[in-house]
Amino acid sequence: MSHFVYVNGKLHVEQVPLDRIAAEFGTPVYVYSSASLTENFLAYANACRQHGRGDQGALVCYSVKSNSNLAVLSLLGRLGSGFDIVSGGELERVIAAGGNTRKVIFSGVGKTREEMRFALSEDILCFNVESIPELHRLNEVAGSGGKRARVSLRVNPDVDPKTHPYISTGLKENKFGIAFEDALATYRVAGSLPHLDVTGIDCHIGSQLLDDAPLLEALDKVIELADQLQDAGIDLHHLDIGGGIGITYDDEKPVAVADYLSRLFARIDRWRAERHGGRPMTIMFEPGRSIVGNAGVLVTEVHYLKHGSSKNFAVVDAAMNDLMRPAMYEAWHGVLPLSEPRSPARVYDIVGPVCESGDWLARERSLAVAPGDLLAIMSAGAYGMTMASNYNTRGRAAEVLVEGDQFRLIRRREKPSDLFALENI
Ligand code: LLP
Hints:
By secondary structure, the chain is an alpha/beta fold. It has helices spanning 18-25, 34-50, 70-78, 88-96, 113-121, 132-144, 183-192, 213-231, 257-276, 289-292, 325-329, 416-419, and strands at 4-7, 10-13, 16-17, 29-33, 58-63, 82-85, 104-106, 126-129, 149-156, 178-179, 196-202, 238-240, 282-285, 296-307, 312-316, 335-337, 346-351, 360-367, 374-377, 398-403, 406-411. The protein starts with a strand and ends in a 6-residue tail after the last helix.
């Protein structure tokens, strides 16, 4: 169910008209729906429960990089979510949001010693390790602190996720994971290191996947490897299949989370029964976009209209620094007026004030707009604010969370003085 709908001609988030939020907090402003976040998280959690995987049998680790606002993390943490992090900074956020560090998994190809020490001191659930040098470093850091580190190896199953090349991660040519053919030897190295406990296997093949076939293909390869590992005497406790399920930006029809999970659990249950006498294994997920992507919009005001001979531009107060996805991936985001339009439409490129031709948010959209009108850039909850920058000394947008007929500021707009507060002359 969409929580972004027109009521009496005004675009609402749950029961709050978006123009009220813009009037109170200004623009550009990111607005998130807690009902939508909750539903999207529960799509995973409930499907796990329906397939007999309670708290021990499955863990959904929300991918913090997709939207790391403390209020979002706190809401998901209270629903029982774990967290997939890629930096010490993200771990600090999880802690500040009251998240359970025993449900944190640490992914990423370049963990520093400092980050490892910090994560070990917080007793996180698992490090997803991506190379042999990383295994050695983690072993050394754990040993010098008198600790043991739980590790999973991220294997690269060489499966084509059929998505944008910048967000595909599970092909041989990508920098991620351990090559499938090297996995067994790498597990042997991990098993020989005294300060590591090998607990799992993981993979993540890409993002914005519409079809679950590549994910199930990756699962099959991971299962094949888990069997080889078992034959070699290496017993795993968890299998983490990553994130990657896509959302509708335009007219895409992504697989429903419940359908994907039922195919996945059917496959896993069959395998466990055949090979392992039904012994349990925790199944983990790392979804980001499918939880938060369609739970957020970016609201912006039209400042100028420029009508030209070959193109019309609507210059708005949000820019590529606020929402990088169009400039970076030519990503398509819907654009809706906050008030249902009355006048006839014209075709516009929606552009920001940043001094780059690449600074556009949407192209060739038919809109009836006038200066002062407000627009919502849709599906901006994931990889929106987290990828925002201060280019052109633009403070990052405010963020607001809606809950029913209530809303609250969850991050204030940055002021220029915030941006140079760390600088010296
Ligand atoms: N786990 C790992 C190891 C990842 O690298 C990612 C995303 C996720 C989980 C979450 O994937 P999701 O469920 O959100 O697809 N900035 C790009 C997306 C980059 C995704 C990076 N990795 C975009 O705006 O489309």
